[in-house]
Write a structure and sequence with these properties.
The complex is a heterodimer of chains A (325) and B (246). By secondary structure, chain A is α/β, with parallel strands linked by helices. Helices cover 27% and strands 27% of the residues of chain A. In chain A, the strands form 3 sheets. In chain A, strands 5-8-4-1-2-3-9 form a 7-stranded parallel sheet, with helices on both faces. Chain A has a 5-stranded parallel sheet with strand order 12-11-13-14-15. In chain A, helix 5 links the parallel strand 11 and strand 12 (235-238). In chain A, helix 3 crosses helix 4 and helix 5 runs parallel beside helix 8. The longest helix of chain A has 17 residues, at 16-32. Chain B has one domain: Rossmann fold (3-Layer(aba) Sandwich), CATH 3.40.50. In chain B, strands 9-8-7-10-6-1-4-5-11 form a 9-stranded mixed sheet, sandwiched between helices. Chain B has a two-stranded antiparallel ribbon with strand order 2-3. In chain B, a hairpin with a 2-residue loop joins strand 7 and strand 8 (151-158). In chain B, helix 2 (69-78) crosses helix 5. The termini of chain B are far apart. Classes of the chains: A alpha/beta (325), B alpha/beta (246). The interface between A and B is large, with 99 and 76 residues. Strand 7 (141-147) of chain A pairs antiparallel with strand 12 (210-216) of chain B. Chain A: Belongs to the ETF alpha-subunit/FixB family. Chain A: It holds the Pfam family ETF.
Chain lengths: 325, 246
């Protein structure tokens, strides 16, 4: 009986969302009086895996098969299922990412496990029931879900739990071979194309986000958004109308039919705040709204607001951030 | 090519979410239900691929009670050829996946498409479960889908980029933008949809593995603190010293 944590790596680094997952898994293990083991997927580096001790992981399984560098659904599923059997894991924790959801859903069938995605808090285990809180209705609500059965899989929403750091602690990295065959790599990607990350901040994992709507008037004005984002070290996002007319790529679209994010700070520039947009961002810890229309509905959902022209206000904010740093 | 497109019946995106007094169920009173917006990409793309090939069929599948039929008819009006409704309330993702897998197997469908997730329960689970139950590949979430004979080329979104994936039929894909421009029904479609076959079948399989104990709404905001536009830099100080987020 143990907790198995799936950690996604890219370019040798453990992804931020996977640090959160590792910390979550270690806390679940502590709740249940057991230990947390991690299994690494993606382009991992052993020295960085050992540092997962800081999040409370005791052991990290690492399969050096080079084809695991890219996401291969079947291979990842088999790798994690094999690790779960070896470790007799009753709880598997992964990130609610595109990879985590794709693998977690297949694993739930293979391992006969119950599955909850989009989980935002540690489980409650009192009264013989195992209950997790998850986001529902695209950020408009939460639901407490009871997971039945002997084995459970939890996909943790990004930025909703904090990664703890216990400096200096290290995890033991153990080599692991899932005996993957060519057939397991049949659905391997033929090509992987990464976006050119402005400032290197990935939107779904960003702690600070600067976002623009139709009030920005055109893609040529996005420099104002990017300048503030760069000064803050923030990611950039946009509303649906903006991605619909191709001012910005669709992966920046936050909202009910885009991505839902929960950064520490969300700055909305020239976005009126339609209910579909609010759904995607209302779990942000602090919301700032800049809009020249004092009646914009977004102000009702905001913590701080500036009624003013984004073209005047944004350069002032950028200058103020630079002055602060 | 036989396409199976799975649609779910969800509250319209403008819906203000409310629950029954015991917080155990979504309050449907006065709510307009629509085809899940993500599923519209799957439906339209299946129809486009069928049209491009000049042959094939598109079947829509819904797991739901009789009140979902208006949206099934809408899918037929958009261009699906026939429909199947599994007559049961969708209990959880596993239960729904079991129904889809059984029908996909029985009907020997080549391509099983659905939206990335439903906008009500946001499970993002059914695609992978169906793929695993049938022992076939899943590509999720797919931004692009092209077919050439029995081979499909898809773009899968990953965090920070995309992968090009090639799979042979049968396979499952969960769809999202910018796969296509979702179609709306035209008058001719609406007229012909009335007479297209809609088969109702009973549910099968094991009971659900998860149950909702309670729903809750997010906590309300305290109210907005306004900062004068002339003095916008003040905001940055507040974000650092008061909100402590930068």
């Amino acid at each position: 009986m143990s907790v198995l944590v799936v950690v996604e790596c890219a370019d040798g680094e453990v992804k931020k969302s996977s640090l959160e997952v590792a910390s979550y898994g270690a806390q679940v293990a502590a709740q249940l009086g057991t230990t947390a083991t991690a299994i690494a997927v993606g382009h991992a580096n052993e020295a960085n895996l050992a540092k997962l001790g800081e999040q409370g992981i005791t052991k990290v399984l690492f399969d050096a098969e080079p084809r695991l560098k890219d996401f291969v659904n079947n291979a990842y599923t088999k790798l994690i299922a094999t690790a779960a059997e070896q470790e007799q894991a009753k709880i598997i924790v992964l990130a609610n990412s595109n990879i985590g959801a794709a693998v977690g859903s297949r694993l739930s069938v293979r391992l006969k496990a119950s599955l909850a995605t989009n989980v935002v808090e540690l489980p409650k285990t009192d009264g013989g029931q195992f209950t997790v809180k998850r986001g529902a209705f695209s950020g408009k609500a939460f639901s407490d879900v009871v997971l039945s059965g002997d084995r459970k899989i939890i996909a943790v929403k990004k930025n909703s739990t904090e990664a703890k750091h216990d400096d200096g602690k290290t995890a033991e990295v153990v080599s692991f071979a899932a005996q993957l065959s060519d057939a397991d790599f049949a659905d391997a990607p033929t090509q992987v194309i990464m976006q050119d990350q402005a400032g290197g901040v990935l939107l779904p994992e960003a702690e600070l986000v600067v976002s623009g709507g139709r009030g920005m008037k055109g893609p040529e004005n996005w420099g104002l958004i990017e300048d503030l984002a760069k000064a803050l070290g923030a990611g950039t996002a946009c509303s649906k109308p903006v991605s619909d007319v191709d001012w910005r790529p669709h992966h920046e679209h936050v909202g009910q039919t885009g991505i839902t994010i929960s950064p520490n700070l969300y700055i909305a520039c020239g976005i009126s705040g339609a209910i579909q947009h609010l759904a995607g961002v209302n779990s942000s810890k602090v919301i700032v709204v800049i809009n020249k229309d004092p009646e914009a509905p977004f102000f009702k959902a905001a913590d701080y607001g500036i009624v003013g022209d984004v073209f005047d206000v944004l350069p002032k904010l950028t200058a103020a951030v630079k002055a602060l740093n | 090519m036989k396409f199976l497109v799975c649609i779910s019946n969800v509250p319209d995106t403008t819906t203000k979410i409310a629950f029954t007094p015991d917080n155990k169920e979504f309050n449907k009173a006065g709510v307009q239900f629509v085809i899940n917006p993500w599923d519209e990409y799957a439906l339209t793309r299946a129809i486009e691929l069928k049209e491009a090939a000049g042959s094939g069929t598109v079947t829509v599948l819904n797991v739901g009670e009789a009140d979902t039929e208006p949206n099934i008819r809408k899918a037929l009006a958009i261009g699906a050829d026939d429909a199947i409704r599994v007559n049961a309330a969708p209990q959880d993702a596993y239960f729904v996946a079991e129904q889809i897998a059984a029908i996909a197997k029985e009907g020997a469908y080549d391509v099983i498409l659905m939206g990335k997730e439903s906008i009500d329960y946001n499970g993002f689970q059914v695609h992978g479960m169906v793929g695993e139950m049938l022992g076939i590949p899943t590509v999720a979430p797919a931004m692009k889908l092209d077919m050439s004979g029995n081979t499909a080329t898809l773009e899968r979104e990953i965090e920070g980029g995309k992968e090009i994936v090639t799979v042979n039929t049968p396979f499952v894909a969960s769809c999202q933008q910018p796969m296509c421009e979702p179609r709306i029904p035209n008058m001719r479609g609406i007229m012909t949809a009335r007479t297209k076959p809609l088969k109702v079948v009973p549910a099968i399989g094991e009971p659900a593995r998860t149950t909702v104990a309670e729903f809750a709404l997010p906590p309300k905001k305290q109210g907005v603190k306004l900062i004068d536009a002339e003095n916008a830099g003040e905001l940055i100080k507040l974000l650092r010293n008061e909100a402590k987020v930068i």
